Amino acid sequence: MKNNFINLIKGFIIGIGKIIPGVSGSLLAISLGIYERCIDIIANLFVEIKYNLEFLFFLCLGIFLAIIFGSRVIYYFITNYYFLTMCMFIGMIGGTLPNIFRKIKLNKKKDLLFIFTPFLLIMFISLISVNNKFVVKDSLISYFIVVIIGFFDALTMIVPGISGTSLFMVFGVYDFVLDLFQNPFNPLIILFSLGLFIGILEISRIMNYFFKNFNTKVYLFIVGLSLASLFSMTTRLFVESFTMFEFFFGIVLIILGSFLSMVLDEK
Question: Considering the entire predicted model, what is its pTM?
Answer without folding.
Answer: 0.67
